[in-house]
Design a protein that fits this description.
Layout lengths: L3 H14 L9 H22 L1 H8 L6 E3 L6 E2 L1 H8 L7 E11 L5 E12 L9 E13 L5 E10 L20
Parallel strand pairs: 1-6
Antiparallel strand pairs: 1-2, 3-4, 4-5, 5-6
Length: about 180
């Protein structure tokens, strides 16, 4: 699962290179549209929380979230249930590092880094942050709206534990 975003990006990029039944290259316009929709998506998440944001910007029927779960979360209702109510003070931010679009202008991919900040309670629970990478596959629907088909979010691996050198056994080390 850790290499899933990379694999999907490679497969989709290869597929996007030949997409489209027209000689006209609409990929530049699609890239700009996806950049704009990414900003609106992030603003919606900031305003209403992850559940509302992801449910609104992924395809209501076919949109799938891939997280560290046995199966994807599919569809608007399941996405809202998965996220539950917004966490007070929590903040999810992200920014695309690259946007790739099909020549047809009807399919695209964005990928980048995300950061999730969860405030502490000011007493016993400290603030936490988590970061990772994401890949979103976008499709323009019949109404001309961009909707996410697949969103893969992969958290970074936790930092390795510091190496601790055990003290020398008694009698084996003398300065």
């Amino acid at each position: 699962m850790r290499n899933c975003p990379v694999l999907i990006s490679i497969v989709m990029a290869a597929g996007l290179a030949g997409c489209g039944g027209t000689d006209r290259d609409n990929s530049g316009r699609a890239q700009k549209d996806i950049a704009t929709i990414e900003q609106a998506f992030a603003a919606r998440v900031a305003m209403a929380g992850e559940g509302a944001g992801f449910a609104d910007f992924l395809d209501p029927e076919e949109g799938k979230l891939f997280r560290n779960l046995p199966a994807p979360v599919k569809g608007q209702a399941a996405i809202r249930t998965f996220y539950g109510p917004p966490r007070a003070g929590a903040k999810l931010t992200w920014s695309p590092s690259e946007i790739i679009a099909a020549k047809s202008g009807e399919l695209g991919i964005s990928w980048g880094r995300w950061l999730y900040e969860i405030p502490g309670d000011g007493q016993s629970v400290p603030p936490r942050t988590q970061s990772g990478s994401y890949v979103t596959v976008w499709r323009k629907n019949a109404k001309g709206e961009w909707k996410g088909l697949i969103d893969i979010g992969q958290p970074d691996a936790p930092p390795p534990a510091p190496l601790v050198t055990p003290p020398p056994a008694p009698g084996l080390f003398r300065p």
